[in-house]
Amino acid sequence: MTVMTDIEHPAGAGPMTVRDLEGMPEDGRRYELIDGVLVVSPAPGFRHQKIAYRLFGVLDATCPEGLDVLGAPFAVHSGDRVELQPDVLVGRSEDFTEKDLPAPPVLAVEVLSPSTAIHDLNTKKAVYQRLGVPSYWVIDPAEPAITAFELDSDGCYEQVAKAAGAEPFDAVRPFPVRLVPDALLGRTGR
């Protein structure tokens, strides 16, 4: 279950900041910050991780010069009150620091889990949109399926593609790559 909380933060101290996250335990949970509110998610499961790592491999193998692909946990932050950790991200090489990405990635990907699906499809999607992340993909491991959103001319996400099962998804942004949702599960399909 994803929990939005600020219980670790002293009462009356105001919103949490990115600096406050440095004191979070290394316990496998994901600690993110949205507008000063701490969001804690459980460690991802087997199927989630398998899909995220396979996606990383496909993207990394086709990634052009000037961009880098990274997997969670790696912090994307904006200011001192927003820090997210997409499951997979693509960013401009020049924008990365040794410890984080203080600029919007060109692609953020979230792999849904039962405990994070609503959060990923709503809250995080809205924050990525607000940050100006041009492409946002959501992978549902249950089908499996990939849904791709891109910013329109008004800066709002619109769904540009959905592929499920053996149907290929031919992405154009942030670079050309073909993904087949079933293939992200690997040879065992689990």
Q: Could you explain how this protein is built, in words?
A:
With 190 residues, this protein is α+β, with helices and mostly antiparallel strands. It has one domain (43-185): tt1808, chain A, CATH 3.90.1570. 19% of the residues lie in helices and 34% in strands. The strands form 4 sheets. The chain has a 6-stranded mixed beta sheet. A 3-stranded antiparallel beta sheet has the order 1-3-2, with no helix packed on it. The protein has a 3-stranded mixed beta sheet with strand order 6-5-8, with no helix packed on it. Strand 5 and strand 6 form a beta hairpin. The longest helix has 17 residues, at 46-62. It starts with a strand and ends in an 11-residue tail after the last strand. 30% of the residues are buried. Mean pLDDT is 89; it is low at 1-7. Pfam families: Uma2 (PF05685). This is Uma2 family endonuclease. GO terms for molecular function: endonuclease activity. InterPro entries: Nuclease_put_TT1808, Restrct_endonuc-II-like, Uma2.
Named CATH topology: tt1808, chain A
Look at the helices and sheets and give the structural class: alpha+beta
In total, how many beta strands?
14
Overall shape = globular
CATH architecture: Alpha-Beta Complex
Biggest β-sheet: count, sense, barrel? Answer: 6 strands, mixed
Trace the largest sheet across and list its strands: 4-7-9-10-11-12
The overall number of domains is 1
N-to-C order of helices and strands: EHEEHEEEEEEHEEEEE
Look at the structure and name the CATH superfamily. tt1808, chain A
Q: pLDDT under 50 segments (min length 5)? A: 1-7
| Helix content, binned percent | 10-25%
What count of helical segments does DSSP give? 3
